[in-house]
Each structure stands twice: as C-alpha cells, then as structure tokens.
Amino acid sequence: MKQSEQSPREHATVPAVPHSAFSTRHSPLCTPGEHRLSRRKLLGGAALAGAAAAGGSLGLGSLLAAAETGAIKKKHKQVLFVWIDGGMSQFESWDPKPNTQFGGPFRAIPTSVPGIQISELMPHSAKQMHHLSLVRGMCTKDNAHSSGVGRIQRGDPKNRGVVYPFFGSAVANFLGQGPSGLPPYVWIKPGSGGFIYQDAGFLGPKYGALAFGDGKPPENLLRSERVAPADDDLRNMLRRKANERFAAAHPAEPVEAMDFVYDTARELMKRGDLFDEANFSARDKERYGDTEFGRHMLLGRKMLEAGVTFVKVNSYGWDTHGDNFNGHANLLPKFDRAFASIVEDLAERGMLDDVLVICLSEFGRTPRINGHVGRDHFPEAWSLVTTGTGIRRGVTVGKTNELGTYVSGDEYDIGHLFHTWFAALGIDSKAVEYDNHGQPLPLAHDDCFPIKELLA
Question: Do the domain assignments include residue 12?
Fold first, then answer.
C-alpha cells in the first residue's frame, strides 16, 4: 500500500494479544507491485478516451434494447459501490468469532436484528443491520491483490479472450446516465484522479470511470472567464458538426465516445456545488466523521442525490499483514461511522429502494495469526455486505464454521453475486447478453446463478 495515499495512521489501543493464543505462521508481506493494478496511476483527459475508443466496442446490442423495454426505464436505478482495498478482516467486522482459537481480542455485539451479531468495532452499523444483508459464505479463488481486484470487480466470467468491464462500467452501459446528464460512473478515491477508460474493457472508453482524486473535481472544470457562455455554445456546436462530418466516413464509436465525454463534462461544469464542502452541513460532517473516508462517503451521497448512476468510493490501507488488531481498531471506526450514516440517510430519503449498495474487498483475511501479529490473504471464507433495491434486508446468507476456517454449507463465488446484483437492478443476467461487435458474451459466469435468499 502506498503510504502517500493514506492519512497519517493513528494507532488505537487494544487489549494485548499473547502470541500463545493463536497458531502462527510466517507469510511474506506484500510487495508494492502486488498493489499496482488496484492503485495504478490514473490517466487523465478526454483525449485518451477518444483515442482508445478506436479499438473498443461500445457493446450496446441486446443490453441497450433490454433497457429500452424493461422496468428499469420506469425509475432510474443507481449503485453505491464501497471498495475496501487490501482485504477487510471478516473476524474483526461482519463475522466475528470471539473466544475461539482465531477470534482475536474483540467482542461480538448484538444488532438491530435479533440473532445477528457483528464486531464491537462497528456499533453504528449494528444499529443499521435491519437495512443490511450479510453474505458470510464467500469462497473465491484468488489471493493476490494484483489479479484479485480485477477478478472481483469484473465478476470473474469465463475466459473468452476479451477484457470484461468492471461492474461500474457494466452498470453505466446498461442503465445509462439517467435524467441527470452527469457522468454515469464516478470514482471517489484518495490520490490522483482522471478518466479511467481501462475499467470499461471491451465496452469501450465511453463507459470508463471518472475518478475524483482526493474527492476533488477535475482540473479546469470551470469555464474560463474569457469565454462567454454563448461563445462556448457555438464552439460546442461547431465541434458536433465536425464530428458528424468525420463520423460519416469513419467508424462512429470514437466520435460517440468523444461527444459523450464532452457533453457529460459540460453537465458536470454546471454542478461545481457538489464539491463545495461548505454545502455539507455540520451535522453531516460530524456523523460521517472528519476523516478522508467520511468526507468521500458524504460526497458519494451528494453524487447519488444528484443522479449519478454508479458511485464507487474507495478506502485504502486494509492489508494488515502486520499489527492486524491495532490496524482494524484504527480503520473500522472510521468506516463504521461513514458507512452507517450513508445507509441511514439513503433509507430516510427513500433512496434505498432504488439504490443498490455493495461493500466488499478482494478477499478476507486468514484465521491464523502470522509472526507479525497480522492476518494474511484469505479468499476461502469471507464476508461482504449489500442492501438496497431488490435486496432482502436484515438477513445473513451462508455461514462459516465455528473457527472461521471454511464455509459451512453453500459457497458463493463472486459470479453468484454478479448474477444477484444484476437481478436486483432488474437485469436478467441469464437472458441478456453483451454484444461485443457481434460476439455474444454472458454478463456473469455461466456456472453461477443468482442467490435467491438475497433477492427481495
């Protein structure tokens, strides 16, 4: 994890953990290269989007046709995707195992749903459990950051020789901008920002992510004072005419992508107020927490309220190979306040009925405690949380054994969750296919299926 992307770490005091209480093993720590894909430097500028479009497909096909006729058109659906980069420990969060060999020093506390307990490090989320659904039976296959991040965010479809889109790009492709006209896929993250066309895979750069580095708007967002509004309108009219003329004799996809970038950028220029923290109430700032993640989650709520289709918010620093307990004692309270607050706000505003909320990592963390008093990568048995449109609330799906060493009963890979989330958005992932220049491609792994227990 790049320390430059993190706020200064403030270690919380937790009960001493004697090494004799745990089985230990030495595991090499991650190298910076393992995190390269999930924290890659972002390439900025609309020019990159237009240039890359020449080699990509917009992949409309049957997806767009289904969107025109489905119930989705009745009311715009949105997604909040909270990415906990590095691997949140399920033992210290959603699936605690207190007083067991691998449970660690933290207690389990009751929640607003009788019978469901989570870690004492998340008291605010415990109060919102009646809005949430836990999946405690995740069993995935990749324990590396560099490949695991992409595998989870693409849904791990079968290898068909193409680069699949991240979930954000897939949703942007299917649901579109909605009435807001704003970029359909935004990413709020620490560090640098820019336009991330790579997320779109074979769909083409039109469906890439616009990243707001450190929660800031893109550079030069405001129109120069030297350019009058009427002159700006004329310049854009001239641009469109030139693009139409070019497209008449060339492939249309690059031109469509470029027009899309310009048009959404102009809409974003009108909404500079979204980034003005002076518009955030003192109460909201206190509830979400005066932390980087708290501010970013509050901005994420503003983006959803403004009508952005897919909002991804990142939290970094969860790769706790060393000092796992102090690390989570520092990180989880910040996460807990912001996550519980946005769930509460969406519910109070009636938005939770139309916003799908997802919170997950690339994997969980090992039961065994290593020689650095840390937990290593563990895709075999971990947890995620989801709620919102199409999702049953106040339930747990799947479980681990008493020690948390394996999934007891049905195991769910990320492909099952992709089918489930598409279904929650009103998209039949078994009937609808991508159209990659005439090549039909499934939306999610063929061998997986929606989890019925999670669907409302």
Answer: no
7 in any annotated domain:
no
11, part of any domain: no
What span, in angstroms and rounded, lies between the C-alpha atoms of 15 and 12?
Answer: 10
State the alpha helices, DSSP H only, in 54-99. Answer: 61-69
User: 225 near 309, Cβ under 8 Å?
Assistant: no
**So what's the pLDDT on residue 5?**
39
User: DSSP characters for 224-279?
Assistant: PTTS-HHHHHHHHHHHHHHHHHHHTSS-HHHHHHHHHHHHHHHHHHTTGGGG-GGG
Kindly report, residue by residue over 105-155, the tens digit of the pLDDT: 999 999 999 999 999 999 999 999 999 999 999 999 999 999 999 999 999
- The tokens for 207 are 């469906």
Neighbours of 240 (CB within 10 A): 14
Strand partners, 108: 119
DSSP 3-state of 197: helix
Which band of pLDDT confidence, cut at 50, 70 and 90, is reported for residue 255?
Answer: confident
Please enumerate in sequence order all residues whose Cβ is within 8 A of that of 128, keeping only pairs 6 or more positions apart, or say none: 112, 340, 343, 344, 347
Regarding pTM above 0.90, the answer is: no
Q: Kindly state whether residue 4 falls inside one of the protein's structural domains.
A: no
DSSP string computed for 330-351: HHHHHHHHHHHHHHHHHHHTTG
How confident is the prediction for the chain on average, in pLDDT? 85
Q: What is the CA radius of gyration of the chain?
A: 22
d(CA 296, CA 106): 27
DSSP character at residue 130: G
Q: Return all residues near 72 (Cβ < 8 A) that are at least 6 apart.
A: 174, 175, 425, 426, 427
Match 């791990």 to its residue by tokens: 156
Residues 378-397 have pLDDT tens digits of 999 999 999 999 999 999 99
Q: What is the CATH number of the domain that holds 250?
A: 3.40.720
421: domain range?
A: 21-454
CA–CA distance, 139 with 190 (Å, rounded to integer): 29
**In the chain, how many domains are there?**
1
Output b/e per residue, 139-167; b: 16+ Cβ within 10 A: bbebbbbbebbbbbbbbbbeeeebebbbb
